[in-house]
User: Fold these one by one.
Assistant:
Number 1:
Amino acid sequence: MPLHIRKIVGFCGFIALLGGLCGPAQSQPAPGRETPSNAAPTYRLPPLPSSIGEGNAAAGTAPARGDPAQQMSAAQTAAPSPGNAPFAATPAGQLPMNYPSNQNPAPDLNVAPNGTSAAPAQSIAPNGTSAAPAQNIAPNGLPFDFPPPVIPVATPAAESAADSSQLMLSPVVDENITLSNMGQPKGLTLSGGQLQSGITFTLPRDQVVTAARLNLQLEVSPELAARDTSLRLILNGQDLGTVALNQGAGAENSYELEVPAAMVVSNNNLSFSVIDENALQCERDASNKYWVNINPASHMQVTSQLLDIGQDLAAFPRPFFDKLNMKDASVAFVFSQAVKPEAVEAASLVASHFGKLASYRSIDFPVFIDELPLQNGIIFGLPGEQLGGITLPQVEGPALQMMVNPQNPVYKLLLVVGRNEAELRQAAYRLVSSPLPARQSSLQVPKQDIGLRQPYDAPNWIDTTKPVTLKQLADDMDSLISNGIYHDGIRVGFRAAPDLFMWDGDHIPVHIEYRFPTETWIDEDNSQLNIALNGTFLQNMPVNKHGLLETVWRQLGGDTRQESYTLQLQPYLIYGDNQMEFYFSLKAKPDAPCNLLISNNIKSRIDPDSYIDLSGTHHFSLLPNLSYYVGASFPFSRMADFSQTVMVLPPKPDAAEISTLLSMAARAGSATGVTLNHVRVLFGLPGTQSARPALAEKDLLVVSSLKNSQFVQDLLADSPYEIRNNLLTIKPEKLRDKLKGYLLGRFFRQGVEADRYLASTSVWRGFLSYQSPWASKRVVVLATATESNELAKLNVDLRTSAINAGIRGDIAVINSENGVRSFTVGSQFPSGEMPWYMMIIWYANQHIIVLSITGLFFAVIIGSCVYVLLARHAAGRLANSANK
C-alpha cells in the first residue's frame, strides 16, 4: 500500500476513535436502582439532636449496657444529629412544617464565628509557655498525617463472598417489641388526672442496638385535640421529643420517631406525659373528657448486632435463653438420625427448665434430626454418634461441652452426652440444677443424687397447709404500695393446685390489712379500696367504719378508721392461675389545691402480713378433666418431678411429635417451677407382659399424630375411642354401660355429638383423655392431630386464652375454622384424699339415683320387718282378747 494512502487511513481511524470517545454515552441504571417517576416520596422525621444522644454519657442518666467497648460500639453506630433544636413528631408519611427542604453542609471547623479563618489552637504547657500544636486526630483514632491503610480492590466474586461471610459472622437481629410484649395487652390510656404513665422493656444482654425506631398508634379525644396539646416522650430520662395531639380527633394516627441507638440499653423506661397536664388536672369536672389511648400494637423497632459471648459454660442459659428478651423464645434441640428415648428424656428435663425460666412467656423447641441449626442449639446423644457433620466426643461418663456452631461461629452448640439413660439424665440434671463453673467450655459430671418430690409440693403452688401472707406471694414489698392519687392497681398473683375441694357453704378466708393516707384534703366519705379476684369484683373497703355509733364517735373527733377486714371467698373463685387486685380509689375534696393532686408523696399500702388461708380445702376431683391438664399439667404435676408419669411417643417419632412433647414438658415446668427430673420416655407401648409393669401405677402423657394408626389403635384398645378407616371415632355405647351411667348419675354424656363432629372435620388437632387400662386410678392424656403439621400448632393454641378456657371434658377438638369444641364421652372416677365420712356424703351427693334406690330398698326391708313385728304383736293381742 502506498505511503500516502496509509497516512490517510490512519488519520481517518484517529478521527473515528476521537469521535467515539467524545460522543454522548447512554448509561443503563444499575440493577435495583430504578426509581420510577411516579413513586411517592418517603419522608423521615429529623433525628434527635446530638446533645440528647450524648447526654447519656455526660449526665449518666442512662445505664451502660454491657461493657464499655460494646457501649462505644453502639454509640458509634447511632446516626448523627443535624441540630440541637427540639422537634415535634408528625404522623408517619407527613413532612413536618419546619423541616428544611435541603440540608446545609457541615460547618468548617477552621472558620471563626465572625467568618474569618481561625488559627490552629495551641495547647498551653503547665508552666504557662506555649506548647507544640496538638496533633489532629481522625475519627478512627489515627493521626491525620498517618498514611491510610492499603486496601486491596476485591474482584466482584471475592467481594460478594466477603459480604456473605461478614453477614454470616455478624448476625443482625430485627424485632418489634409491642406494648403487649411489654406487659400491656390492652395498651395504655392517659385520662382524667392520670395524664402521665410509663412502661419498661428489656433487651438481651448479648445484643448491641444499632438502630431503633418508635412507632406510636394514638387515639385522642376531640376535647384534648382541641386544646392543641402535645405528648412528651422520655426514654431513660432523656427527651425523645413531643407528638402533636391535634392531628385527628377520635381517629387512630400513626407516628414514627427515630431513636438514637446509644439511648437504648438492656433495661429501658419509656414515659408518656401530656404537656398540658397541670392545667388539665385542675379541671376536675371535665377531666374525663381528656384522654389519649396508646394502642397495644405500638412498638419499638430495634435492629441489633449479635455478640459472640464465647464458650463459657457459666453463661448458661445464655445464649440459648435470656430472661431480658421480651419476645417469644425458641431453643433448638438436635438429635441423631436414630433418635433414642433416653436422649428425649434428657431433652424433656432441659425443656422443663426453660419453661420454668420462661414463666408466662411462650417458648418453642424446633427439633433437628441429623442436622445442625443455623442458630444456637443443644445436642443430646451418646458418645461417638454422628449428626449434622460432627461426632460427639468419646467420654467416660456424663459430660457437658460448649462449642462453636460450624454453621456460624457466633452461634454456639451445647453438647449433653452420656453413655446410657442414667448418664444422660445426670448430665441434664447438672446442667439445670446449679450454676456451671466459670471459664470452662467442658465439664465431666460427677454422679449426684436426684431426690424425689412429695405430692403437691410444687414451689409455684400456694401452700394449702397453713395461711400464706401476701409478702410471700408479692415480688417485693414496694409492689404493695401505691403512690399518689392516680396510680395503677396493686396486683398479687398466685397459682394453686386445680383439684382444691370444699363443700358448698364453706368459704376461704382472706384477711386484708390496709392503710389509707391521712391527708386532710382527701374525701374520706367517697374514697375506698376496691378488691377483685381474677377480674371478679369482690368488695369495696371504706376509709372509716360505717354505723350509727361510729358516725357519732367520728363527729366527736374519735378515730373510726377501718384498717382490716376478712373476706369470705367462694371456693369456685379460686383457679389454677389467679390474680388478686387492690385499687385505692382516692377522691380529693373540692377545695384541694391542684399541686397536691399531682403529688406522689402520699402513699396507700396493703400490709404485707395480710393472708389467704386455704388450709380448709382438700385435694379431691373427678378425672379425667382436660381443663386441669391445660391449666396446670394436672394430674401429672401432682408429683412435680413427674416421677409417676410416663411420656410415650410412637415407635418412630418425627420432629413435630418430639417438639410437641418438649413443649408439654416446658408447660409443666412453668406451672410447677420444678424440672422433670424423674420423667420416663418410651417409644411405643411395651410389647411383652413382663414390660407392662412399666405402665402400672403411672399416668401416661402420649403425643402422636393419627398417621401412626396402629400405635394409636393399640393405645385406645380399652378406651371409649377407636380408629376406624383411619379416622378417630367414638365406640358405640352398650346397653349395659348406658344403664350403669344412668345409675351413677351420668345423664349428659355426648358420645354421639362428638362422633358426628369428628366425622365432619377432616383436619383437626386436640386432646383426649380416659382412665388408664394399666392402673385403675390413673389417666391417659393423648395430644394428637390428623397430621404432624397440625400437631405442631398445639403449643400456639394453648397460648390463646379463648382456646385454653374452652378445653374441658375428656375430648377437645381444635381447628382453624371453629376454634375449640369440647365433649364429655367417657366415665369419670374420683381421685384425691378426703376423710371417709366425707366420702360417704360425697357419694350420696353425686349418685342420687343409687341413693334413692338404696333408700327405697332399706325402706322396704325395714318396713317389712316392722310390718311382721306389728302383725305378730296384733295377733298376740287378739289371741289374748279371745282367751279373756
Number 2:
Amino acid sequence: MSVLLSSSEVRETYEDGLTRLRKQFEASGNGIAVVQGRSRLVDQVIGLCYEHLVEQRSVPADCVAVIALGGYGRNTLFPHSDVDLLFLFKDAKQEAAHKDALSRVYLDLWDLKIRASATARTVAECGRFDRENMEFTVSTLDSRFLLGDRELFERVRAKTLPGLLRKSGQRLLMSVAESARSRHHKFANTIYHLEPNVKEAPGGLRDYNLACWLALVSRFRHANSWPDDGSLFEPRLQFELNSAVEFLFSLRCFLHYRHRRDDNLLSWEAQDAAAASGIGVGRQDMETAQWMRVYFRHARLVAGAAIQLLEELPVKKASFTTTLSRWRAHKSNTDMSIVAGAIVLPKAYPTNEYPSLLNVFVRMARQGLRLGIDAQRAIIQVIPQLNAAEAEQSLWPYLRRILTSRHAANALRAMRDCGLLDAVIPEFKLIDALVIRDFFHRYTVDEHSFLTIETLHTLRAATAEWKKRFAEILGELERPELLFLSLLLHDVGKGMEGENHVTASLTTARQVLIRLGLPPEEREAVEFLIQNHLEMSAVMRRDVFEPKVVGAFADKVGTPEVLKMLTLLTYGDISSVNPEAMTEWKAENLWHVYVATSNFLNRHVDEERVHSTLDGQSLARFGALPPSLMKDLESFLDGLPQRYLRTYGTEQVLKHLELASRLWQQPVQLVLAPHRNLYELTVVTRDKPFLFATLAGALSAWGMEIVKANAFSNSKGTVIDCFYFKDRFRTLDLNPSEHDRIKRDISEVVRGDRSLEHLIRARSGFKSTNRARTKIETKITIDDESSTHSTLLEVVAQDRPGLLYRMAEALAELKCNIEIALIDTEGEMALDVFYLTSNGAKLPQTLQDSVREALQEKLRGDGQT
C-alpha cells in the first residue's frame, strides 16, 4: 500500500502547484520558472513520502541518501518529464534491508501521475563504469542531494565519481560521443528539419546537455576538481547558450502543455501556435517563418557548441604539435591555424578583405575542416562592414573552388551560419532556414540545397553499383562547377510569392549569374538546368521506351553534356528530399531515362514493337537457345513493346515464356516472390476485360500497397502483368502459409470462380490505417501527343488503399485497354500514368472526356476531389 494514497492534501497541493505553474507560463512564457517550479513540487512530495516512512519506522533516517538524477538532478523537470531517483546505500547489506520499503516512494509518485523510476546502488557500485549502461554514470554527473544521509552523497561526489573519471573518464567520453553521433545520424546530422524534435534532434536540449557533460568531464580531468557552476564555457559562449536554452526551455514547456504528454515534436501546427503565442520571443506575435528562423538560430548555436566539443575528442594531454598550433593561433600574425580539426584565426587575420575571408572557406571545403567558434564570431562581426561591390568582383573564382571541393556543403553551411552567404548572394537570404510545408520534403529549403551538393560529392566514394554509375558520369563532366552552382540556386524562388517556384528561381538566379560575371554560355547552361530541374522527374513518369517521349526530351536537352548535368541534378534533388526518397528502383528509372536519351542523342533508338523475327541485338541475347525454343520465343514476343525486352532480363523473359506455355494446363499462371524491399507478383494469362483492375483490386483487398506495375500483351492476347507492392500489415512476412492463399484468391478471382466484391468484403485491406496529414488535390491530365500509339493519362491524387483498383475499374468500364501502367508514390501523393488504347488505337475525344468524368466521379466518391 502506498504511503500517501489517503492524503488528499498532498495530491491537491501538488496539482494546485502544477495549475499555478501553467497559468504563470501562459502569462509570461517563462520556461525556466516552470521546470524549476515543478522540480520543487516533486521535491516536496518525495520529502513527505520519505518522512512518512521514517515516522512509521519503515526505514531508519540515515540508511540511504535519496538523490535526484538527470534532468531532475539539474532542477529542470518539464511538465511531463520523467523523474529519475537514486537510492544510494552504504553497502549491499543496507540495500537488501531497506530497498523494498523505499520502493513505496516512487509508487506514491505514480499515484500522483508522476512517471518515476528509481535505481538502487551502493557507494562502491557508483564507482564502476559499465559501458552497456553508461547512461547511469552520465546521470550521476547531474546528481542532486534530496534527503537522508548527506555524507553518502558527498562521499560519492568527492571520492567515488572523481576516481571513476580518473580511471575511466576517457572511455566514458568515447561512449557518450558514440551515442551522440549515432543520435545525430538518425537526424541526418542536421538541425534543419521541417518538423524538428526540440529535445533529441541536433541543436536540441539533448545537445546542450551533451555539451555540458563533455565540458564538465574534460575540465575535471584537466584540473582534477569539479568546475564551478557557470564556468563550463567561456563567458561569451555561456551567455549565448543561456539565451538559446531559455528559448528551448520555453518551447519544450509549450509543447508539453499543448500535447499533454512528453511529446517534443515541433509539428507544423505547433509552429503556428508557438509563433502566434510568441513563445521564446517575449510573447510577441510573429510570423511562423520568421519565428522558425529564431528557433534555428538558437539550435545552430547549441549544435555548434556540442559538435565542437565532440570533434575535440579524444581528450588527452595535448601533443607538442597541438600546443604549438594553439600558441601560433594566439600570436599576432595573419596565418590561419588548424587546432583539433577547427580553423582558428589570429586577431590580425584580415577578415575584412574578401580574398582572405573566402580563402577560409575554400580551405574548409578542400580539407573537411570546421570553423572554430571564435573564428565564426569574428567573421559574423565583420560581415556588416564588407563592401558588396568587391564581393561581386572576387566571389566567383573562390566560389567555384568551394563548390567543386569534396566538403563544399559544410563550407557553404558555415558561410550561411556566419551570414557571409547572404552577404555575397543576398538572394539566398530568401530561403535561409525557410520552412516550406509539403508531404514529402523533410528539410528547410537551404539545407535541401546544400544536401543536393553533398549528395553528389559523396558519389565519389560510393560502393553500391547503382550509385557508381552516376559517379562515373559526374567524373566525365567538363564543367562540374556549373552543375553545383545550379544546385545552390535551383530553389531560391521558393522564398518568393507565387505558385511557380521554378520561374521565380530562374529570374532570381539570372541576376546572381550576371553579378558573378559568368560568360553568356555558362549562364545559359545554369539557367537551363534551373528552368528544367523538374523535367527529368516528369519524364520518369512516362514510358521511357517510347521513342516519341525520349525524342522530345532529347530535343530539349540538346547535348550529352547537358544531359549528364541534368541527370545528376535530378539524382541530387530527389535524394535530398528525405533519406528514403531515392530508392534503388527510382535510381534505376532515372538511369533508364539517361541511357535512353543518351542513345537517342547518339542516334541509337529502339524500334517500337518486337516483330516475329528478332533483330540482331535480340538474336545475340537469345542466340544460345535451341531452334525449337527460339521459335516459341519469337511467337511469344511478337507484338510486345520493345519496353518489355528493356525491362526484363533474359532469365525473366524465359520464365514468362515458360508460364505462357502452361496456360493450356492452368489458365492463370502466378509467381509471387520477394523483390528487394517489396514483393513481386507476376501474372501470365489471356487478356480479358477488367483484368488489370481485378488484379489491382485483389491485391488491395489483401492490404497490399502497389508501388509499381507493368502491363504487357503480345499479338496473341497473352498478358504479362507484374505488380510490385509493399506488405502494409506484414501478412506475408509473418505468415509464410499466406503466400499460397493470396495466390489462390487472386487466381480464383481472375478465373471468375469468385467475385472480386466477395473478396473485398472478406478482407479489410481497403481500410486506411493512417489519417492523411496533407490534402492532395486530384489532377487528371490526358495527352494525345506524347505517344505514337496510345493516349497518355496521368492522375495525381491522394494515395490511399484501393486507389489503383478504382481507377483501373473506371477505365475498364469504358472499355479502355491499359497498354502500360507506371505507378509511383511520393509521400501521400500517388502519381499514376496509364497508356491507353481503344480498339487498338488512341482514344477519341469523346472517350477522353468520358474517362476524365468517370475518374473525377470515382475519386470524388472515394472521399477526394
